[in-house]
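Sequence, please.
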């Protein structure tokens, strides 16, 4: 005798759905660099700064949307945090090629993330208050200058590269955020007003932000306080994310940043990732379960030989 009842179907369907909504593996980071400089010595400095994951602290302070990693500054391990590509005195374009820890298959939702030296301008001047981003469409700064930009190309084999964005430079203008909980306050010292970031408020455990795609834009942060900014980032580490599906490659293992002569770009880190697959809301699960339980019971009988 074979009996088909609801609880068996429920278990089967839920098991299938659980597998279907499981998040994809985490982002992968570059582990090897090969710099290519045309006719200009010293146009790529500290290429190691672009390897591994994004910097989380600098000078004892946490990296956050108002406190970016700065060029030429040193990390706790003694090395500079950022890779610098190009220089104002370079007479030829400069490029930096990074090799990722493994090849990542490309799908419609595969993105390349770039973390640079971008910090939101704080317009809050009241000591003890939460910092607030400037209003307008460009509330960001890079060392009191414009955000970095570069021509970005990707490759599966390290030899044949395809330029993204039709070969036009891409601006890396979204801030990097290291933690989901950061205790920022506005302080004054010697007549100056500035933001004093810490990894977490007293009693809180610092939670690292995730190097997964942030698909928002710089203008979204306009006028936001830090708690609102962290909510908008949704647990991600921010950064500028570029869809790489248009390159037409089946997999990607290399990325190249090319900076025109006379320009400079700073790279904190890069990452390749697919966005996590969304998990159904509790209400959706409930409706699905009710629908399954409403299915009729089917019984089958088989005569013994």
């Amino acid at each position: 005798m074979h009996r088909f009842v609801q609880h068996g179907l429920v278990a089967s369907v839920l098991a299938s759905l659980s597998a279907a909504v499981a998040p994809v593996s985490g982002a992968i980071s570059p582990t090897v660099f090969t710099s290519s400089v045309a006719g200009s010595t010293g146009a790529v400095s500290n290429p190691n700064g672009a390897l591994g994951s994004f910097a989380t602290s600098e000078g004892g302070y946490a990296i956050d949307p108002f406190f970016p990693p700065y060029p030429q500054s040193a990390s706790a391990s003694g090395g500079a945090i950022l890779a610098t590509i190009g220089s104002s005195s370079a007479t030829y374009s400069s490029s930096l090629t990074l090799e990722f820890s493994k090849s990542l298959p490309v799908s419609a939702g595969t993105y390349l993330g770039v973390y640079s030296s971008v910090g939101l301008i704080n317009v809050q001047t009241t000591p003890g208050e939460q910092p607030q981003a400037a209003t307008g469409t460009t509330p960001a700064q890079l060392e009191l200058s414009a955000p970095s930009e570069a021509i970005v190309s990707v490759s599966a084999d390290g030899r044949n590269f395809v330029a993204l964005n039709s070969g036009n430079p891409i601006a890396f203008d979204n801030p990097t955020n290291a933690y989901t909980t950061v205790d920022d306050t506005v302080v004054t010292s010697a007549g100056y007003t500035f933001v004093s970031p810490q990894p977490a408020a007293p009693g809180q455990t610092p939670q690292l932000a995730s190097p997964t795609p942030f698909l928002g834009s710089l203008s979204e942060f306009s006028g936001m306080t830090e708690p609102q900014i962290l909510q908008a980032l949704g647990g991600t580490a921010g950064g500028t994310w570029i869809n790489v599906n248009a390159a037409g490659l089946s997999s990607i293992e290399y990325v190249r940043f090319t900076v025109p002569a006379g320009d400079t770009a700073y790279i904190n880190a890069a990452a390749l990732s697919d966005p996590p697959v969304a998990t159904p809301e509790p209400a959706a699960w409930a409706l699905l379960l009710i629908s399954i339980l409403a299915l009729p019971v089917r019984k089958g009988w088989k005569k013994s030989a």
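Confidence is low (pLDDT under 50) at residues 1-25, 277-293, 297-305.
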